[in-house]
Design goal:
The chain is an alpha/beta fold and about 230 residues long. The protein has helices spanning about 10-15, 40-45, 105-115, 160, 180-200, 225-230, and strands at about 20, 25, 50-55, 75-85, 135, 145, 165-175, 210. The protein has six helices and eight strands; from the N terminus they run αββαββαββαβαβα.
């Protein structure tokens, strides 16, 4: 079975060939330079294009609203998350047969979105207008587009941090082994992406990649936290 996503190559080629709209905003030249649409050469040279799986490809439900008003990532940066207890990595990226089933990454992301939009009444949890992360990265090295570029996330624990930090979730559980290199490389690519195209952390001195536990009392992002300290995603 191939581990390639069904259309990620096409998705990447499209990103390289034309200006794209993500999170309701057209991409601009890296480092905040405006005035023209992005050419394929610019997208290929800086930054490395993440292996995006679009919302259409993972069959995302429609958001109940979109909010870009209160989001200033240049004054914060990037927050790293993980799935937590009982949410182990999926063995398959793409199933052998359609439709996707419970044991692949696509279902995992759809389950997260459904849980965020429709929390169980007796279990509790905040109800979100969409999946609470901007991007989700699986251990096969693919990036699922959540709220995307330019949208305030809901995952960072406080309103202050949601207004200033992108939320990137590694699809890894607390019982999983250390994250594979493919996941680490892809998280770095997404971090570079939001730094280039939305100036995440641009006005912050020192490190601007944080762990969820730096904001609130939580074990998140688990195994990924040590890589933050090592500067893997800087």
């Amino acid at each position: 079975m191939s581990t390639e996503g069904p259309q990620w190559q096409l998705t990447e080629r499209e990103w390289a060939q034309r200006s794209e709209v993500v999170g309701g905003q057209k991409l601009i030249k890296p480092h905040g330079e405006t005035g023209h649409e992005v050419s394929g050469a610019e997208l290929i040279s800086t930054p490395r294009i993440p292996r995006f799986v679009s919302r259409t490809e993972w069959r995302a439900a429609e958001p109940t609203q979109t909010d870009t008003v209160h989001f200033w990532p240049e004054w914060g940066g990037i927050a790293i998350h993980y799935e937590g207890k009982g949410k182990e990595m999926r063995p398959q990226h793409t199933p052998d047969a359609a439709p996707p089933h419970w044991d692949d990454c696509y279902y995992q992301v759809r389950r997260i979105q459904h849980t965020h939009q429709h929390p169980l009444p007796f279990v509790g949890g905040e109800k979100y207008w969409d999946i609470s992360y901007n991007y989700l990265v699986c251990h096969h090295g693919y990036t699922f587009v959540g709220r995307g570029l330019g949208h305030q996330p809901g995952a960072n624990g406080t309103r202050w941090h949601n207004e200033r930090f992108y939320a990137i979730c590694g699809l890894i559980g607390s019982e999983d082994p250390q994250p594979p290199q493919a996941m680490l490389d892809e998280i770095k690519a997404v971090a570079d992406w939001v730094r280039a195209y939305d100036r995440a952390g641009a006005n912050v001195k020192g490190r601007h990649v944080k762990g969820h536990r730096d904001f609130v009392d939580t074990k998140c992002p688990g195994q990924l936290y040590s890589y933050i300290g090592q500067g893997t995603f800087d």
